[in-house]
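**User:**
If convenient, please work through this fold.
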Amino acid sequence: MFMLADHTNQMGDLIAAMGPMFWLMMVFAVLAVAVISERLFYFHRVNINSADFLRGLSALLRTGQYNEALHEARQLPGPMARVVEAVLSRPRLSRGELREIALEAADLEVYRVERHIRVLQVCSTVMPLLGVLGTILAIMNFYDQPGITDGAVAAPQMSESLRQALLLSAAGISMAIPTFLFYMYLASRARKIINNIERAGLECVHIICDARMNRAAEEQSSEEADCASAAATPSRTPTDVRS
């Protein structure tokens, strides 16, 4: 308990030594934490197994169950399901038109996936700059003291000014490093989700068009088989009737 209280007092002394510039850096740090938490929760919520999702849709579409496939897409959350839903809403269009719909729907989802991530890049850039600015201001404040040019400033006062300057730089850098790492991680994950969205939309287009072609081929084969069967059936002649 005493060690914890002592550690808390030391942290309070460090914060007090850094002055108002530390609290300005903390504003950006809190903003970065809020963005990281919100994006991690969002990515976890919209994370679905695209392979299983597309296999289930393929099984439904190949049997012509468009309404069931559309219902499945609407039940799932996330941008991938919304892109697939946009394609399934117009299954009778040509392959080129369905492809344009899939790409347009994917472009609309890019903003939702990448939203607020750029804020982390801003925070990771501003925080060390604020630390450097605080360092410069602390050194300038030290040299503005009377008697500094005459060497009349005491050593403890000099060390306190230098300590404040170094603490501000260290605080800015220590806050910026994890913020930038999270920015890189979230940006990479967002790009992966966007690629999966585009791939799912295009694969849905191919599944719909291939299913239509297969059904048309099956219907044509069935008609040809019926025609061949009718042609192979012998017609009854008048002689056969009299006999």
Residues 1-7 have pLDDT under 50 and may be disordered. Residues 130 and 172 are 7 Å apart (CA to CA).
